[in-house]
Amino acid sequence: MKHETTAELNQQANPQDEQYRPSERQRERERFRRARQRRNRWIATLCTLVAVAATVVASPGWDRLHSRFLDGAEFRKTFPAILDGFWLNVQMFLIAEVLILVLGLLIALVRVTRAPGLQPLRLAATLYVDVFRGVPTLLLVFLVGFGLPALQLQGTPSQPWLLGVIALVLSYTAYVGEVLRAGLNSVHPAQRNAARALGLSESQTLRRVILPQAVRNVLPPLLNDFIALQKDTALVAVLGPLEALRVAQIKANYDFNYTPYLGAAALFIAVTIPLTRYADRLQRRAAQRTWAEAGQ
Length: 296
Description:
Blueprint: H1 6-13, H2 24-57, H3 62-69, H4 72-112, H5 119-134, H6 137-150, H7 160-186, H8 189-197, H9 202-232, H10 244-255, H11 259-295
């Protein structure tokens, strides 16, 4: 005799709980909508590019703009050096990203805890977030890059790029800490209670139940912050390290041709656009998941 599983028995008892499967006609409609959306995006993009190109080319200063900003020979000559400098931007971004995630999570955990003995830490974390979210990142780069070495403390780093990373970490940790705090608060208290009822300790509940859900809820805005961080590594150029923007500035000042700036912009775009599209995809998936949960 064939034995039926519990899931099969439940489906037989509750046929309305079976997973919804769209019909072939519905799938065809969805494919048509996606194809039409892609076509409309391509048409809109093409029309925009044509309109912008027509406006720029027809402007009186087009020849001067073309010679100063769109010089192909200058682009090919300076791009290798800018690409080498961009590798420093990538290194700064990767180092800062790890530190920001760790410190931002600590700030978020301190701010959501309700332990009475941690009240001084909560006040300090709140003050930190309020101050460093209020200071412009460029101003913070100046303050750290020039002010920290002026203290002449033993062990103070002297490399300009490292001082720039410290400034970026101080600034973005405040933003990421607030994003993670919002994610922790978005997890329903019943999740914690259920985990404790199953015998998990407080640390196990946080690590295996609360944090995974919190990170999933705030992953799109978190990724947007790191896209901004990748671009803001160019602010470190004011301290002098030979990153992409600084190299482009040196090349442009040599013969007053600003095409190297275009090369630096192209490198940042090549990194940020894929990340932006990925963030948009995560936001759409999160919205679809919310709609699906609301419809159940």
